[in-house]
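#onboarding

Welcome to the new folks! Below is a worked example of what a typical request in this channel looks like: someone posts a single protein sequence, and someone else replies with the predicted structure as tokens. Don't worry about understanding the tokens yet, we'll cover that in week two.

Example request:
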Amino acid sequence: MPNNSDGAIDLEYELDDKPPWPKSILLGLQHVAVMIVPATAVAYVVAGGVGLGPADTAYIVQMVLLFSGLATMIQAYTIGPVGARLPIVMGSSFTFVGASISIGVDYGMAAVFGAILVTGFVVEGLIGWQFSRVKPFFPPLVTGLVVVIIGLYLIPVGMEYAAGGSAAEEAGELGALHHIGLAALVLGIAVSLNMFTRGITRILSVLAAIVVGYVAAIAFGLVDFSPVGDAALFAVPEPTRFGFEFEPVAIVTFAFLFLVSAMETVGDMSGVTAAEGRNPTNDEFRGGLFNDGILSSLGAVFAAFPITSFSQNVGIVNFTGVMSRHVVGISGVILAILGLSPMVGAVVTTIPSAVFGGAVLLMAGMVAASGVRLIVTHTELERRNMVIVAVSLGLGLGVATTPEALAGLPNAAETFFSQPVIMAALSALLLNTFVPGEQSPLFDAPETGSSAAPVESDAPAAGPSDD
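Example response:
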């Protein structure tokens, strides 16, 4: 879409426009198609890392879809102060994957969902309430480093899945040729479609690649359909399926991760409103963050992982020029309906790990690349900022690759500081805050024009945000 002088694009449908029903449904299905793979991959990866069985894995996938749909509908239409009235599709974030696996292994899934229940509402609710005070502490340098480390530390997870995952390791087939071949097929098709095609083929490149990989796995007899036969077509969600435990280290860990997640949502909301040539208002920021936190806490009651905004769908809004929140509302309805069917979750669990591995490798790399773009677009990489980047990435990747280096710490401290996202984000936050520099909120930050400055009005921004 061409840009206008004020940074807006030529919109096919504006925020409150309602396209004809047939077109609205197709546009809504496109949003679902783009986000359903990474959203369910989060549930799939965590369930596999913790060692859950097919039934529990299918149930968690089902709940992720259900609460992604509910949160998307509320984001589009609002309930009281909850929701931004913006076309933002919601889903489970990779930000929480590492902590969910490590805490799930060490303390059990009850501790994971107990921590989400407490921290989702408290942390993001507080951030939304005091957003204008908090935002200057998270300029592009800090949020970009967080996004980079999320992508980088997920790459080994993608490689393990590409080799066949835990099931292949137990069978002594880790790295077998058919696993590597499936992962390479998925990765190759996704990259080829993304690089050499346009329009809907490019947008749906990851989904198309997974479908081809799945069909190939079926053809070679690598898919077990027994979980689908055992699954019901429709089922009512089960509250407290895994129970709740409130472990202090789990609560502190997820509290910090929700802080990180809030900054991702802020960036995505800015990306959506950039299509109109403006930044979000404080009311929009507040409603969007309330939606993140409250729906994440509510979802934890039913065993859903934290819900946040999806950047892929922000890209679709800007690419197609369809900003209608009613289209996204339809996406939410579709997701919620899918989430009420255990059979959908069961189908996802039949996809071989190697097929997901090829997709996760691509998605993790793209996450890291988008973080790099966020940093270099908005940050001058002079000596101060280079040191912050070096320390943050060094510590984040250090604990990711050599977690035994922290074995001498007390158990609670080891669990908290062994999270790569926490180490990188905490390092970047502290250094950027207390070392004088352009993006520091305490020292040399410009009073106006800063990328970290809070938005106080509906006035159009000078140009679109790159978050």
